[in-house]
Write a structure and sequence with these properties.
- It catalyses: 5-dehydro-4-deoxy-D-glucuronate = 3-deoxy-D-glycero-2,5-hexodiulosonate.
- The protein is mainly β.
- The chain has one domain (2-274): Jelly Rolls.
- It has two helices and 24 strands.
- It has helices at 9-12, 17-24, and strands at residues 2-4, 25-26, 35-40, 46-50, 57-58, 74-80, 85-89, 92-96, 101-104, 111-115, 124-130, 138-140, 148-150, 159-165, 176-182, 188-189, 194-195, 199-206, 214-220, 223-229, 233-237, 242-247, 252-259, 268-269.
- Strands 1-3-4-11-6-9-12 form a seven-stranded mixed sheet, with no helix packed on it. A seven-stranded antiparallel sheet has the order 2-21-18-23-15-14-13.
- A hairpin with an 8-residue loop joins β13 and β14.
- The longest helix is centred in the N-terminal third of the chain and has 8 residues, at 17-24.
C-alpha cells in the first residue's frame, strides 16, 4: 500500500510533469494475484484493485490502517471491469459481472475475490473510505443503476452515467460511486468542468483501447495541467481541482467521491471562458 499526501494548490503550480504523475496518477491497479492500493490523505480514500488469476484472493489487513481487519472502520465499493467473478463477504457468495457494483459495509471481516475463468479474469476496482456506521452489503447491476444518457454528438460527449452508491441507490456512510461510458465517436468527459471543495474525487479509466490514451485535465481552474492516462489507471483529484478528460478514442471511467457532502449534485461549475 502506497501513501500519497495532500498538495497545496499554490505549490502545485511549480510541479513538472514527473512530479504531477508521481503525486496524482496511479499507474498500476491490476497485477495478477496481488492487491494494489494507494492510501490518499485526501479524505482518507483508498483506491485500488485486484485481479485474481490463480485462485481466490482475500483482502488483507494493512499496518497503515492500524486495524484488526481492513473494514473494521471502513466501507468498500467494488466495481468489476472485466471477466465474471465472485466476491465472498463473511461467507456470502455474490456474483459480479462487468460493470456490476457491490457495496460492502463496515465491520465485514473477510472479503475474498475470485475469477470464474483464469483466462478471462475479473478486474475488481476497489474504493474504500472511513465509515462511522454499518450499512447493508448489497449489489447493483448496471441496469438497476438508473442509467441516464447525456451530452450530444455535436459536442463529442454523448455518454451514459450509472449511479451505484449514492443517497438514492446503494446506501453508504460517505462513499459516492458510479461510472460513465462514452458512446462510440465521443471523447469528452465532465466538460464544462466543475470542482467540489467539500470532497475529493478519484477516476479509474478503463476500456481505453490499446495504444490510445485519455488526456486528463486537472488543477485549479486558472492553472490547469494535463496527464496522459492509459487503460486501468487512476487519478486522484483534490477538492480544489477540476477533473475532465478527452480521449483519442471513446472509453469508460469509474468516479468515486468522499468528503463532507454526500449529495451527488454538489458541484461548482466553471465556465469555459474562465478556464486557463
Amino acid at each position: 500500500m502506497q501513501t500519497r499526501y495532500t498538495t497545496n494548490p499554490s505549490d502545485f503550480k511549480q510541479y513538472d510533469t514527473d512530479r504531477i504523475r508521481r503525486e496524482f496518477l496511479i499507474e498500476s491497479l491490476f497485477t495478477p494475484n496481488t492487491f494494489e492500493f494507494v492510501y490518499s490523505h485526501y479524505d482518507r480514500m483508498i483506491v485500488g484493485g485486484v485481479m485474481p488469476v490463480d485462485g481466490p484472493q482475500t483482502l488483507p489487513a494493512y499496518d497503515e490502517l492500524k486495524a484488526d481487519f481492513f473494514l473494521q472502520r471502513r466501507e468498500l465499493g467494488i466495481i468489476n471491469l472485466a471477466g465474471d467473478g465472485t466476491v465472498t463477504v463473511d461467507g456470502q457468495v455474490i456474483d459480479l459481472s462487468k460493470k456490476e457494483c457491490l457495496y460492502v459495509g463496515m465491520g465485514s471481516r473477510e472479503v475474498t475475490f475470485r475469477s470464474n475463468q483464469a483466462d478471462k479474469p475479473a478486474k475488481f476496482a476497489l474504493i474504500s473510505t472511513p465509515a462511522h456506521r454499518t450499512c447493508p452489503t448489497a449489489k447493483l447491476t448496471s441496469a438497476e443503476a438508473s442509467p441516464v444518457d447525456l451530452g450530444a454528438q455535436e459536442t463529442a460527449n454523448q455518454r451514459t452515467i450509472y449511479k451505484y452508491i449514492h443517497a438514492d441507490g446503494l446506501q453508504s456512510c460517505q462513499l459516492v460511486m458510479g461510472l460513465t461510458t462514452l458512446k462510440s465517436g465521443n471523447i469528452w468527459n465532465t466538460m464544462p468542468p466543475h470542482v467540489h471543495d467539500r470532497r475529493m474525487e478519484a477516476y479509474i479509466y478503463f476500456d481505453v483501447p490499446e495504444n490510445q490514451r485519455v488526456f486528463h485535465f486537472m488543477g485549479h481552474p486558472q492553472e490547469t495541467r494535463h496527464l496522459l492516462v492509459a487503460t486501468d489507471q487512476a487519478i486522484l483529484s483534490p477538492p480544489w481541482s477540476i477533473h475532465a478528460g478527452a480521449g483519442t478514442a471513446s472509453y469508460s471511467f469509474i468516479w468515486a467521491m468522499a468528503g463532507e457532502n454526500y449529495s451527488f449534485t454538489d458541484m461548482d461549475f466553471v465556465q469555459l471562458s474562465d478556464i486557463r
